[in-house]
Amino acid sequence: MSFVSILFLLAAGAAACLHYALPARFRVAYLLALSYGFYATWSLPYLALLLAASALVYLAGQRIAAVPGEGQKKLFLGAGIGGLLALVIAFKLAGEIRGMLFPLGLSYYSFKLIAYLVEVYWDDSVCEPDFWAFMLYPAFFPQIVSGPIQRPLEFFTQLRRQAMARADYAQIEAGMRLILGGLMLKLLIADRLNAFIAAVELQPASYNHQIILLEACCFTLQLYADFAGYTNIAIGIGKLFGITAPPNFAAPFAASNIQEMWRRWHMSLTSWVTDYLFMPLQMALRGLGHVSTILCITISMVVIGLWHGLTCNFLVFGLCHAVFVSATALTAKLRRRIFGIHVVTRVIGYGIGVPLTFVAMTFSQLFWRTVTWANAMQHINLVFGRTPCGTLGWEGMRTEVAEPVMICMALAAYFGAGAPGLRWLAGRIGLIVPAWVQYGLALLLISTLTIEAGSSFIYGQF
Predict the structure, then answer these.
(1) Number of structural domains the chain divides into
(2) Most buried residue, 23, 122, 274, 370, by most Cβ within 10 Å?
(3) Domain that holds residue 27
(4) Are 44 and 178 part of one and the same domain?
(5) pLDDT digit string, tens, across residues 200-217
(6) What is the DSSP string of 30-54?
(7) Same-domain pairing of 139 and 179
(8) Structural domain includes residue 152
(9) Is 0.90 surpassed by the pTM of this model?
(10) Distance CA 29, CA 19 (A)
(11) 106-122 and 152-163 are packed helices; what angle lies between their axes, rounded to 10 degrees?
């Protein structure tokens, strides 16, 4: 069931009302039943896989916390993590080789389960004794499709708190605002950008170089609007049930270098890789100096690339970012000496860094978005003029596809840069226009401007 369908949103609202009407002792079981029911609408066999993986990790976590010896703890930790990684790799390989459907949310709930095992290994007190509360952690339905990847202690703390709480109307209203904002990002911006990209993709060699470059930039903006839209909806739905997930985006298009961009883009994945892979690796290799930094960055970026899929394209995507991030880290002192002298030089450095970061991200997306290596090379050759482009321009597209593109690109870039000034403007509008009128106008825009040929969430495939 799609997060943007009217049926799902109405069902989620009704489910939230019933959640607060239930006695406290039934709420965890109710949320677990909701989550499993949501997953079952997609696949019953893969629901069994989710149940089995969750139960085994629960048992492994109990053993890690119970056994006294460090060696025994490492044994259960290694077995749990190894089993989860083997599961993800096996299904990704089966998808690439045999075209098997990848289990919904497997990458995300595996990362959550790995985080739980590591946290319990580091601190026994993180171990969750309540079996049903633990089973809800990987299965919580707003987060299972595409995250965010919430840490275990944060989730369990909120779960215990909300199980005894009355409805927090301020939190519920904040959740509804996030859902509306996410729907607008997805339906009014991302889907319209997707229509333009799909039109170009039908015959890319027929369009002129201006359209090819615009389409390459357009995908990065579409990916942001699509994924940030999903994230807002997911966090908003969680808030309806008293659970606040971590943010996934913080103005990534305002980043002045690629390292900073990764701190702002898919933040829950970036922080997961930083805490559970990069930092332990850096501690283990700390005697190697700059070699350690480059090696740890390369491994981390390659893991992020291959997490999306075990293909050559995703590997090259990861290696591209390994080069970009390593270069950024190694030149940090030099850039501070050049651009950090005066406010004017800082502004100049920022003005150079922001577009360069966007270009680097857009270049890497030429590998990320394409299915095959040949397809990636075709796009790269067209973008860099190594293959002659066609002559078709805007006249080669339908009016309803071509006309909104520039506006939607500008809006995606504006929101991706943190929507400067919007909060001040919203505060002034709120003094004049009641909240219910604002929500009504948002729903009117969504209902009238949504295109019929909408697309599924891009990150739903991972």
Answers:
(1) 2
(2) 370
(3) 6-165
(4) no
(5) 988 888 899 999 999 999
(6) HHHHHHHHHHHTT-HHHHHHHHHHH
(7) no
(8) yes
(9) yes
(10) 10
(11) 90
